[in-house]
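Lecture 7, part 2: worked example. A protein chain together with dinuclear copper ion.
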Amino acid sequence: MRSNRVGWGVVLTAALALAGAAGLHSCAGAGGGPGADVSAIASERGLSEADIVAAVKTYQPTGRFDEYVMFASGGHSGQVLVIGVPSMRLLKVIAAFTPEPWQGFAYGSQEHQELMESAMMAGHEIKWGDTHHPALSETDGDYDGQFLFINDKANPRIAVIDLRDFETKQILTNPNMGTNHGGTFVTPNTEYVIEGAQYSVPLWTDYADVDRYQEDYRGLVTLWKFDRARGRVDENQSFSIELPPYWHDLADAGKGPSFGWVFLNSFNTEMATGGIEDGNPAFESGVSANDMDYMHVINWQKAAELAAAGRTREARGNQVIELQTAIDEGVLFFIPEPKSPHGVDVTPDGRFLVVSGKLDPNVTVYSWEKIQQAIADGQFSGEDAYGVPIIDFASVIDGQLNVGLGPLHTQYDDKGNAYTSIFLDTKVTKWSLDPLQVLDQIDVHYNVGHLAAAEGDTRTPDGKYLVAMNKWSIDRFNPVGPLLPQNFQLIDISGDKMQLLYDMPIGIGEPHYAQIVKADKLQPFEYYPEIGYSPATMSASADAVQGGEERVERTGNQVDVYMTSIRSHFTPEYIRVREGDRVTIHITSLEQAHDATHGFGIAKYNINLSLEAGESQTVSFVADEPGVFPYYCTEFCSALHLEMTGYLLVEPRG
Ligand code: CUK
Ligand code: CUA
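Predicted complex, written out as structure tokens:
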């Protein structure tokens, strides 16, 4: 331990040099001044030289913004985390699939109720999601900062988030998947949002027992057509491609020379059906028996032409290109990939694909040029049981490199280097693509899953920062009982040697993937552009209430309340109804000041809205419980915030 606490003169000089470079004054030597304090504080806290450098690289003084913003999946919280990089400050949790009271997401607002109803599956209103892979919208292969998509693995769904207000606008359900995993990924101009299934289920029949697995179960990939002008997916122009009943994993879209293609990993090409309770090999071993599975190479441009030409068959209301059509029309090819493959990551220039097999210590680098040539020449080494042509493995690989035990996912920097997460060795390996060689390794803590690099999935990654998204934290933080947070570790990748800078515990769910965008690409609203704006439609609301127009209207049992909120009162302050009335409150915030948010919570009715400046929302409920129920503003909006209140009076029926 002592050897950590070295070289105070050097450390101090380094820290002050950095401070000087930042244009700050230093007062070294002035007793009790900042200079003298750094050394004393560091010594007292037992900080090493590397610790101080890490602190100086990540600390943001109050009011200073981060250079990057990371959008991370919130795992089985069903949400999205927004984090500043390099400070690793949590900026927001975006309600994606799961009700969230601070944002008033699905706590009584009619707009959110409609969204939740559109997101129902199998007749259930679903109150959680398992978010894995966020994807920022792209223009010409570069993040454009406009939209974010994310999958719900558990209930095969996709959320569309508008980055003008960081709110979920649309949730798409996929009736032909059991779960998803190969999503979301976008094509380079966000033409399509890709969703690949994971565990195969019956496609053309509603029910089939597992003894019909090979006949009736099917894999699937769906391409959701994004309408950027509307900020919504157009379901009518979306389509799917039927795949053999393998289990599908991660995907990536080609770019540059590989534009127009999607690459989708698979496992369980064994088509193992488990059943450990009947003495069969467990799924665990059955699905990982083969040395090779198949990377699916999919021509999405050709598939889109087929779908537009009606070469589809309907399954549960969605258009599906049948497997035989995909084979006949040259939409689908396989390439063997070792072993229990997980990530497939296209290089920034679109010329190579990197695949990691969880049970193979190598990354395998495939050459798009060679793949294209093999397809053009019709050079196949065979076909699978369903007739899909298989491209010869050896003829299309550029090389393999031993990066460590259990490689999962790969990211890229601006210097032609790749970074692969090594799950079993719990490391990150930095390697170069040309020549193929390992350059550096760093320990992470512990069991790393995905990595996210600054601008990492664009055609021009920035390098600089890499975040290791670790599954276990064990001894990194204060103990909080047997359920521990996940651990994001920020790594500086600007130099030859990687340096660990910062640990950020994630105590809300297990995040999987994240994307990191240059902060200045985001142009969010400071407040809604006009008073009476509906986030659900991103336009003026027909139900907006202007100041002076507040009123209560009754038609039979229907009571419509037209309400406004402004510091520090609601108008009206009394809502008088009778037991059994349907009450609809149209409420508009008259604020146009930055950060002037009001909440609207009604006691005991499970209602809470968040009304950002200018926002208009509607809440509708049956006053089924008689009594007196205060309502109040749930955001501390002003000195007289506690006074921002009123009463819902529900008179008992005689
Ligand atoms: S998966 Cu979680 S570590 Cu869903 Cu992208 Cu690899
Ligand atoms: Cu408005 Cu508190």
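The pocket of dinuclear copper ion (ligand 2) is lined by residues 568, 598, 633, 635-637, 641, 644 (CB under 6 Å). The first strand starts at residue 68 and ends at 73. Keep this in mind for problem set question 3.
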